[in-house]
Write a structure and sequence with these properties.
The protein is an alpha/beta fold and 370 residues long. It is built from 16 helices and eight strands. A hairpin with a 5-residue loop joins β5 and β6.
């Protein structure tokens, strides 16, 4: 059933928010506020009180006091505005990172793209909502991110109301040195408690259609894998968060992986996302048949003996997965063990045999990964 099918009228807005409150933070970690600093406990208690002038004034005063401390000494910071209204989000999160002491807490809130969708479809009839939401999507979500249109957006927009998918904000937090410890809807806005754990990343990030992902190759060396973007921006920094809170489904992939976009799911089904990996093959970092190139987080889930086998060969575009179609992580490791041992004994013969088995399963038996 489509997510917003039955939520097309104004009177259903509260129902929509209640639904999002269950769905969006579904896999968020459990955080015990009783063990948090007293200031954070008091902040969250006030934040959950009914909206009003007194509540707003208290939160504004708390935010001002929390940011007034010297760098490296803040225990709890409250963002001075919701993130949709902040022009340079990463710069702001980096500034907060410098202000916090190690393991200090940053509390932010924002309106997610899903909530923005609900705002239109709970207010207008479906046809009108489709039209208005399309133009709102282009203006508040696309224009602020493209170099050619960013200046126009800020020139014409008196009040910034950028729209972010939830995975992008969570990924930005990890990119800027935090771990997310709590997500929950407070009233109709998603509130995130993040804890400072490291310095911000320094590698550049783009919104382009091709993304570079750090993967482990032969000899345990890291290299950049090229793929078409199928996830929301900054989602690659969420891999640990998703693996810790979502678990694995059949086929060894993360269950309910909300990082993947609708277009991304279609591209993955058609294997379009992997076409740029031919660049890695031409560069000699990968070969046609071989084990999947894995991120460090996923690689660390493997048994040590399988890890050692994997790094003796180059990763490949066509993995042995499509020969055995394993369903669990243990089965995937056994499938890759058989391939690696066979390849190390007879390289050409093994890849030739696996290539035709993989093509047969994909083309004629319609085998697909989940």
């Amino acid at each position: 059933m489509p997510l917003f099918k039955n939520l097309t009228y104004r009177e259903n807005y509260e129902e929509a928010i209640a639904y999002l409150s269950d769905v969006e933070p579904k896999h968020s970690p459990k955080f015990d506020l009783a063990e948090a600093p007293q200031a954070l406990q008091e902040l969250m208690e006030v934040a959950k009180t009914p909206r009003g002038e007194e509540r707003s004034q208290w939160l504004n005063d708390f935010a001002a006091r929390s940011w007034a401390v010297p760098d490296g000494e803040a225990e709890v910071l409250l963002a001075e505005d919701h993130l949709n209204a902040i022009r340079y989000v990463n710069r702001y999160l980096r500034k907060a990172n410098a202000k916090l002491k190690p393991d200090g807490y940053l509390v932010v809130s924002f309106d997610s793209a899903a909530k923005r969708h609900h705002e239109f479809y709970s207010r207008y009839p479906r046809v009108i909502a489709d039209i208005l939401y399309f133009f709102d999507f282009i203006w508040h979500r696309v224009f602020p991110k493209l170099g050619l249109t960013r200046r126009l957006y800020y020139l014409c927009t008196k009040k910034v109301r950028k729209v972010f998918p939830r995975p992008e904000i969570l990924g930005r937090l990890y990119y800027c040195g935090y771990d997310v410890v709590s997500e929950e809807y407070i009233h109709d806005r998603l509130c995130v408690i993040a804890q400072k754990k490291r310095d911000p990343h320094s590698d550049p990030h783009t919104y382009g259609p091709i993304i570079k992902l750090h993967r482990i190759g032969k000899g345990g060396e890291f290299f950049w894998v090229y793929k078409f973007r199928t996830m929301h921006a900054y989602s690659e920094y969420l891999q640990t968060y998703v693996s810790q809170n979502n678990g694995l489904q059949e086929g060894g992939k993360f269950a309910d992986d909300y990082r993947v976009t609708v277009w991304g799911k279609l591209m993955r089904k058609l294997w379009m996302d992997e076409w740029p990996m031919w660049i890695n093959i031409f560069k000699g970092q990968m070969k046609l048949v071989g084990v999947r190139p894995l991120s460090k987080q996923y690689f660390d889930m493997y048994r040590p003996e399988i890890q050692q086998l994997r790094i003796q060969t180059k990763p490949g575009l066509l993995p042995p997965f499509y020969v055995d179609m394993p369903e669990t992580l243990d089965e995937i490791q056994e499938s890759e063990r058989r391939y690696c041992e066979a390849y190390l004994a007879h390289p050409f013969r093994t890849d030739w045999k696996y290539f035709w088995k993989i093509i047969g399963n994909i083309v004629f038996r319609r085998k697909r990964s989940n």
